[in-house]
Amino acid sequence: MSTRPTKDQLAAAHGTTIPDVIAPDLDVLFCGINPGLYSGVLQQHFARPGNRFWPALHAGGFTPRLYLPSEQERLLDLRLGITNVVARTTARADELTDDELREGGKILVAKVLEYRPEWLAVVGITAYRTAFGFPKARVGPQDQPIGDTHVWVLPNPSGLNAHWTPAALGEEFGRLRAASLDRRNR
User: Fold this and answer.
1) Which Gene3D superfamilies match (predicted)?
2) Could you tell me if residue 61 is left (phi over 0), alpha (psi between -120 and 50 degrees) or otherwise beta?
3) Given CB 3.0 to 4.6 Å as the disulfide criterion, which of 66, 69, 86, 157 pairs with 58?
């Protein structure tokens, strides 16, 4: 779809899901809070114009160039993937209940144990705190792994999270990239 989704298409996408971009033994499995309506219509993660995930991924050194959401499957060739804490699409993440986030956290743990990525990178500190019950967690590496998978919390790349500048997002993604390379080279 090359044009912007219509209001009717966006409304119809509410509550739908989009497939994960996932495979066993990835270097990093990125985990959004939940897909937005724009992503639901396009069936692409972080698809809304203005979402800074794809630029931060590139600025952090994960991709050789700026990928478009339509190229999400190419991430698998780079040993990267994408999933979400909660699968259902909403207009805004604040439509999710704490119970949904906690249940999504349980589903995510099962997914991580099945697919065994080296790192799980949750993009959204508040969602991570609620889903996993760590109210004092901060952005960066976490002390609590999931099985053998290390956990890193990244800032939410939504344009609504304006206090994280594009440069700061790129730096934080770059910290994770450096840590993932360090672990891979051990």
Assistant:
1) Uracil-DNA glycosylase-like domain
2) left
3) 66
140 bridge partner residues: 153
- Model confidence at 39: pLDDT above 90: yes
Cα separation, 143 vs 125, in Å, equals 14
14 three-state secondary structure: coil
pLDDT at residue 116 in the model: 98
Distance CA 181, CA 27 (A): 9
Region 36-63: what's the mean pLDDT?
Answer: 95
d(CA 115, CA 135): 26
Pairing of β 119-123 and β 80-84: unpaired
Q: At what angle do helices 125-132 and 98-115 cross, to 10 degrees?
A: 90
